[in-house]
Description:
698 residues, mainly beta, five-stranded mixed β-sheet, 5 helices
Amino acid sequence: xxxxxxxxxxxxxxxxxxxxxxxxxxxxxxxxxxxxxxxxxxxxxxxxxxxxxxxxxxxxxxxxxxxxxxxxxxxxxxxxxxxxxxxxxxxxxxxxxxxxxxxxxxxxxxxxxxxxxxxxxxxxxxxxxxxxxxxxxxxxxxxxxxxxxxxxxxxxxxxxxxxxxxxxxxxxxxxxxxxxxxxxxxxxxxxxxxxxxxxxxxxxxxxxxxxxxxxxxxxxxxxxxxxxxxxxxxxxxxxxxxxxxxxxxxxxxxxxxxxxxxxxxxxxxxxxxxxxxxxxxxxxxxxxxxxxxxxxxxxxxxxxxxxxxxxxxxxxxxxxxxxxxxxxxxxxxxxxxxxxxxxxxxxxxxxxxxxxxxxxxxxxxxxxxxxxxxxxxxxxxxxxxxxxxxxxxxxxxxxxxxxxxxxxxxxxxxxxxxxxxxxxxxxxxxxxxxxxxxxxxxxxxxxxxxxxxxxxxxxxxxxxxxxxxxxxxxxxxxxxxxxxxxxxxxxxxxxxxxxxxxxxxxxxxxxxxxxxxxxxxxxxxxxxxxxxxxxxxxxxxxxxxxxxxxxxxxxxxxxxxxxxxxxxxxxxxxxxxxxxxxxxxxxxxxxxxxxxxxxxxxxxxxxxxxxxxxxxxxxxxxxxxxxxxxxxxxxxxxxxxxxxxxxxxxxxxxxxxxxxxxxxxxxxxxxxxxxxxxxxxxxxxxxxxxxxxxxxxx
Length: 698
């Protein structure tokens, strides 16, 4: 119903576009030649899709919803995680599990997205690698909606892609020192230069070291990361970049799985207090840890053969492992709010030894040519990925219960893990994407065939046995019309598949992949020669072939379920002289396979970031402020709602010559809130966090 109403309204707006284009409203008059909003770290707003669409098209010329967070925005907002980077992006719910150092979490249009790094798969399994450090990144991009036509098996919600800083990008030398809340100390460098006199060989070294505690008692967030790269550019037509990456993180899990009573509701009658502090630690000092390490080598090659043909090829090999120990609030005593009768709680002691290996290759050729009056661009490519992940786990008995309101830690017993077979994923695909530009029209269409196989593994690449093997065609199509005044309405359609239906039916047949389908109607606007960028989209997205209980065979499942998400997204960036602002708004109606709202997906979300860079007596100062509103969300069963919350962020910076000193404050009012409540457990959000950062280029 919502999509129908929104589509009618949008169609009425599109129908009025010819009148606007004929000069009724001269939107071009706001253009100021030569105006720039670039900051200390580069462009303040991205106008290009970068690599996430494999074409680098302008966002305003892309008939899909794409958002790109630049390095300048990462630094300006003081982003410390990928979750922080995404919190001002429409259609995205970031950090929905609250304090959790084990991974970066987000939902895109209600579904967990596919995560990529430098355009290649970045994750198989859970808790077996490190999380990207924002300082090491050039950008974070989100493509909303199905993207299997480009990337194969993946989420119906979309794709999040992080891109590395490499020697292929022009950047000044920079060092940075940061101190902040919870005894945080971080030093970072970004160095680059020529390796030969002709400048055809360049290097870049990006690295950081951090020593820090966190909001949670008895926890830490220590990281060492570095990424050297070399780019060989013998001519304007050829470029090869080789990037190495190493990251070691000694962290704590942070997530506590605390009871509903003491977090969202008072613990009166259950525990020995009312509300728990958001620094709660119910683990064991010396036991809880998440120590992970990751090593990778990436090669990125580009070559233009002539005025028509070019080729891109990307390759990465990655190894990761993690030692994960965690004592969390046990899921028992539900009739008493998960408390023992005396107000103490039981704890589950868990240990895991996890590892990951991935190999990924994606190569595609691009042809740019003309067919009469039609400008054409054709992309033909193939990809191949192999991944193996393993998790050997064990559980231990607690020494004694503890009182979460007055914890007296009791120690822990050693835990022996059980060696179990790993899981192997093997996928290949071939794809074609085509763009036709006819006068003011842009017509995109693409098709991909993907084949994926999973099964048990002995730790090496490839499955020793096959659990599921599937092949699937997916595609996408879109049309956009560009008016002279910068307005560009579009209509797009895309499909996806994902091999995430695990197990077999009553007859022992492996389940088929889930399917995704989306229709999107949108409007984009960018006046020529400006950074102003405004986007609006309504979407109707469905995930089908989901598992539900088999009514005729208790204990088994059938693939007849579906989930949906439909809504409206708005995004805008505009400068008014010394003031620039970025606005995002999301409205979505979701439904899971059981008929309830999708867990953790709020119906409304909005954000606003304002940046003020005055002149005159205040020249060099830069003031920023943000507000983030997250609406009410549910637990996926319609039983428990998590109330809405509003958070405020602030930034003050002084820039002079090659120096920048910045103060960033997240959750300015130190609001105490929970991000979600499910199955009798609630998860704390982050309190006020302050950091002071000194940066200098040379």
